[in-house]
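Sample entry (149 residues):
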Amino acid sequence: CRGTWGGAFDAFGSQVAEEGPLLVIALGPQPEPLAGLPVPPNAICMPSVPQVDLLRAGIDLFLTHGGQNSFTESMSCGTPVVVCPGFGDQIVNSRKAVSLSVGLKVDRPDPDVGDEAEAATAYRAACCQAMREVDADASFTAGARRIAE
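Predicted structure, serialized as tokens:
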């Protein structure tokens, strides 16, 4: 999760709260989830957020693990996605996002391969790049809205 949040902060974080988009981050229940990760002033980080309400309000991009509920909710609201799957339905839904042209997927690094710090840095950069690409390319939003109809 830290790699995805770091990627979001790199892609859209700003030095001033009033500049840049508002980033709303659901941290989950883990203790000290942001340990050592600087949070930009335009980000709000909480253990949980009203996900469906935010999606219905019309957010620009949804960064998700791609579980069935999250994926279905984002598609029903016409929100493009960046999916960082871990296992199970998340992997299937990440492939659906790409095949439906509603988003991109970023595979998590394999913990058994190579240098762990290098893999974490590459993952964060890949998340940042995918978010920037989905945000900049209106075809992802158009695809998600088409699915919502």
